[in-house]
Amino acid sequence: MKAGKSPSTKKAPLAHGLKEDILELIAAEGMRPGDQLPTEPELAERFSASRSTVREALKLLEQDGLVNAIQGRGRFLSALGSMSIERPVTIYESITEMLEGLGFTVTNAVLSVTEDTADEHVAHELGLEPGDPVIRLVRLRLGNDQPMVFSINIIRRDALPGPIAYRDWGVSVTSALEGHGHSIDSSIARISAADLPADYARKHDLKKYDPWLLVEETCITRDGQRVLYALDFHRSSEIAFNVIRRR
């Protein structure tokens, strides 16, 4: 007897698409934690979907912790659900992705790119030996032509082979690394308030933006390799990060 596809196999793509539609609706409506979602019939009518597909999409949102279901009352947006719209610090994304997500038109000013060697701290962060070769990239990230992030990226030299003079350093480093088979999917980060290093602040006339929100980050690929150590100074008057605290 020929086996057929199970109903869940057919329904899953529709449900996953509807899940994203509901998240877009949450963002468009400016919903906040604790706000009640439209009912299943209302969502079915709004998106011209079947009740079963709506129910499956809502279950996916519940499984992700984005929506809380309360028996007899309905479904409500969780704190995590609102954070997924506001781009929480717990999600890894490149500086370019973050700024574009905040609505900025992004340009990158490459201030310097040099061959360097790892000191003890960098070697520890990247799993290297002191003196191993690295690339040191310094850039100013602009959003709508205004300084937003001052970045010092230190990259394992073997992760981006070839002469540095022939590479476009204005693109996302995350994308460049991915092009060489190093797909970053997580990072370990420390966030603190800091002034920009005095030599950079003076040279590039950035002292007036002190203090910055410094994100010191070691980026890790899917196979566990530490390929990028970043010091990203975010302009604190324009950029903030959201976190969830749970008891």
UniProtKB/TrEMBL annotation:
InterPro entries: Bact_HTH_transcr_reg, Chorismate_lyase_/UTRA_dom_sf, Tscrpt_reg_HTH_GntR, UTRA, WH-like_DNA-bd_sf, WH_DNA-bd_sf. SUPFAM superfamilies: Chorismate lyase-like, Winged helix' DNA-binding domain. GO terms for molecular function: DNA binding; DNA-binding transcription factor activity. It holds the Pfam family GntR. CDD domains: WHTH_GntR. The keyword Transcription regulation applies. GO terms for biological process: negative regulation of DNA-templated transcription. It comes from Herbiconiux oxytropis. The lineage of its organism: Bacteria, Bacillati, Actinomycetota, Actinomycetes, Micrococcales. Residues 12-80 form the HTH gntR-type domain. This is GntR family transcriptional regulator. Keywords: DNA-binding, Transcription, Transcription regulation. PROSITE patterns: HTH_GNTR.
